[in-house]
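Let's practice the habit of predicting before peeking. Look at the sequence and jot down your guess about where helices and strands might fall. Then scroll down.
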Amino acid sequence: MPLLMALCTVVGILIGTFYANHFSGNKLNIINSESNRLTNLLHIIDDQYVDSVDVNEIVEKAIPQILAELDPHSVYMSAKEVATSNDDLKGSFYGIGIEFTIREDTIHVQNVIADGPAERGGVIAGDKIVAVDGKPFVGKEVTTQEAMHKLKGEKGTKVTIGVLSYGSKKVKNITLIRDEIKTKSVTAAYMLNDDTGYIKVKNFGENTYGELLIALATLSQENLQHLVIDLRDNTGGYMQTAVQMANEFLPAKRLITYMEGRKSPRKDFMSDGRGAYQQIPLVVLINEVSASSSEIFAGAIQDNDRGTIIGRRSFGKGLVQQQISFPDGSMIRLTIARYYTPSGRCIQKPYKLGDETSYEKDLIERYEHGEYFSQDSIKHDGPAYHTSIGREVYGGGGITPDIFVAEDTTDMTSYYKQASMTGLIMQFAYTYTDDNRIKLNNFREMMELSDYLVKQNTVELFAAYADKHGLQRRNLMIRKSHRLLERYINARVIYNMLDEEALAQYLNLDDPAIAKALQVFRDGTAFPKKPEEKTE
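Done guessing? Here is the structure:
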């Protein structure tokens, strides 16, 4: 027995030693070192997995999943996504200078940017790009991302495009030299009437504040006495830009916003009193898509009682991301803090860790709950706060406007919904523009073009087009939705032929939010009044 026990002990030691040595570099370290688990796991997979795998691809898929467990706005972006994302906010990119749409697996030039490479090369709106650098570029491979990849590039590099002009069957090759293409975030600036200016801000980029100052200076020469800043559908951008813009309208030593996080000490952003428009009556328009920097600006104006907020409750993004780049050009946007309005409210809407689906469905749930149609349906999850003069405002889910404007559904029908949601209206508007471009080129002003389109009965033309493309004609519904259909169709044609400012001018003609803003100015109530004290 002693001999047998000794033999078993020796065998046990040998087996234990073998496994310890064989797996000491992976399994044991994974157990004993929390910080190295993922690294070691990848080493094990790369070293011992039954099939060959691309570890980099695994990492690309794993990082988004890890970040999704934190919050809805901590995200991973590939190098390509980073480049595309930054173009909008930087205010420029290098390319050929066209706006395009993809129809029937082909690039259609929608607009040509003035004095860009494409215009200098003779490309005109309505042309089709069917080849790039001598190779056909049509069919299923033609996606927006792939088209941008082929047409954008380093400044000074050449690209040859095969262009098929309207009415021609011969492809002509045009060699273009890529150049810097400016993009605007202030897409409209004009006078609504004799003394009221309107400025549309699409996003908060590097050049937005400068563009705002130019727009204000231009409008000031046209008797600017009241101002509407439209932030509807503006999803945000750089926080510092929002701070600069708010500073232009606030007196000195007013808190604009502050940010604070577990590892980020509180940082206040104050006005310096140098703004040139501290006294102008101001209205800010927002809706459910207005987010992030839009909410910083609107919150600063509201909490300081500097102007009136009109529209619908904003999105509710109150998280601050820091960009952390990787050597390959990819990066993560990691939430490091929350930002707060001057009254102390965090406007970030509630979310559950890892439940990104519910977070993304929030706007749909608001619609179904009736919030877009009734102010009484707005649910405030946070406590009440108070502005500088004591007005009640709420956090926990976006900026609630001072004056609510419901979404217009008076003439809505299932026919209109299907026509708009399937993209048929957009397709028809482009086809109509393309087929009538010679005639439409005679109109350089929005009102002239609008009057012409009304006379052409574009709704009837659309109904015939839609019937041939799978949307059965419904005469009663078409009559009920005639105003909505005409507005949508003609707006897209006007945009195709003119620009974003012309589009804004057309849509604002019968916009109820604009009407409310003008009423506020007429009544002299743009500056909020102190609430009356309640008596028992």
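How did you do? Residues 7-11, 17-32 have pLDDT under 50 and may be disordered.
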